[in-house]
Amino acid sequence: MPLTRRDFAKLGTLSLAAVFAPVLNAQSPTGLSSAIQNAASAPAAAASSGGRKTGYAVIGLGRIAGHFIQGANNTSNSKISALVSGHRDKAERIAASCGVPSSSIYSYENFDEIVHNPAVDAVYVALPNSMHAEYTIRAARAGKHVLCEKPMSVTVAEAEAMIAACKAANVKLMIAYRCHYEPTNLRAVQLIRDGAIGQVQAIESAFGYDIAPGEWRLNKKLAGGGPLFDVGIYSLNACRYLTGEEPQHFSAFVSTIDHDGRFNEVEESLSWTIKFPSGIVAACNTTYGGSMNGFFRVHGSKGWIEAAPAFNYDGLRLTAQFSNTLLDEPNPARDPSQFQAQADHLSNCIQNGLEPKSPGEEGLRDMRYISEIYRSAGISI
Questions:
Q1: Number of domain units in the chain
Q2: Would you call 234 a catalytic residue per the annotation?
Q3: Are 255 and 229 in contact (CB under 8 A)?
Q4: Are residue 56 and residue 136 in the same domain, yes or no?
Q5: 277 and 208 both lie in a single domain
């Protein structure tokens, strides 16, 4: 069926329980029209909460936090109710701009006092990677639900501890995989599941950029590793949801070409291949050494699908060719729409007793695969 612009927008709220669930037969159709109908019912589910907004405490006020604050404030079911920062003056300025009282500004030292703030239902963890586990666990112990940025953690053991803490506290844990709630990626997955390009044979994907000196991501203690933890994870996760399968085998290589002082602790570039149980193969690249447009291209027995860019905050574009059909579908949505979708989804889950579509277990799987990729490349993390 043809996809209208209105239908395309509705896909942004589509539940991914069926679309992204890993299944060995990734070609089985689920029906695009049915998926769109399911998406259309999502706002009604959120409205059933009676209009109360879920309050979020934003932990860490770096660049990505600004996108989330805007996105949450654009929803009808979410709001920013507290801030956590090591810079009080910065937090005061942001609080004034989004209506957060000064009494709801916390430091990292007194963060645990958030347990006494009834305006905070959940937290958004936007800290360096190595701090994700600590603040997810502390938030859970305070009885707050958690939306944690990816990568979930820097080790498998940390990811397991985060899941255990949230389960023990009976709070929800969602990992901020933006693309799981983004229409261009959803459209690609649906076309593959519907069999539009036939049996998937191979995938190519990449994402990278030229990192500036002094970035915390170049500090292994804070970042956990190099570009795979930062932008390469998008390609890794995309290969999983595009195939609907879990990887069976990895082969990887690391490289550092620019010996300019930036890469004393982490690698500059990493390439890896994946083999899936069905026989599908994927080749992926990530780098901190140059501009590498985030994209994926899926080759099937009856055609191909490409998203380029696929992982940016906006400006995404899907093209495809199959069965004498040519598709060219730019996504008109603009930043912070993807952050809005994430906040809307978790708030809906909290208000209606649902489970997030990108739970802690999803992040744990990627942490295990990241460990395997590095192990194949001869690096321990």
A1: 2
A2: yes
A3: no
A4: yes
A5: yes
Which of 53, 144, 150, 172 is flagged as catalytic? 150
89 and 59 co-located in one domain = yes
Concatenated DSSP letters of 205-238: EEEEEEPPTT-GGG-HHHHSSSHIIIIIHHHHHH
Contact 356, 173 (CB under 8 A): yes
The answer to pTM > 0.85 is: yes
- Residue 56 annotated to the active site: no
Assigned domain for 366 exists: no
Range of the domain at 116: 49-175
CATH of the domain at 325: 3.30.360.10
Question: Catalytic residue among 56, 106, 177, 234, which?
Answer: 234
Q: Are residues 228 and 155 in the same domain?
A: no
Answer yes or no: do 153 and 211 share one domain. no
316 three-class SS: coil
pLDDT in tens, the chain (381 residues): 344 444 444 454 444 444 444 333 333 333 222 332 333 334 333 334 457 899 999 999 999 999 999 999 999 999 999 999 999 999 999 999 999 999 999 999 999 999 999 999 999 999 999 999 999 999 999 999 999 999 999 999 999 999 999 999 999 999 999 999 999 999 999 999 999 999 999 999 999 999 999 999 999 999 999 999 999 999 999 999 999 999 999 999 999 999 999 999 999 999 999 999 999 999 999 999 999 999 999 999 999 999 999 999 999 999 999 999 999 999 999 999 999 999 999 999 999 999 999 999 999 999 999 999 999 999 988
Same domain, 137 and 273: no
H/E stretch holding 376 reads helix 360-376
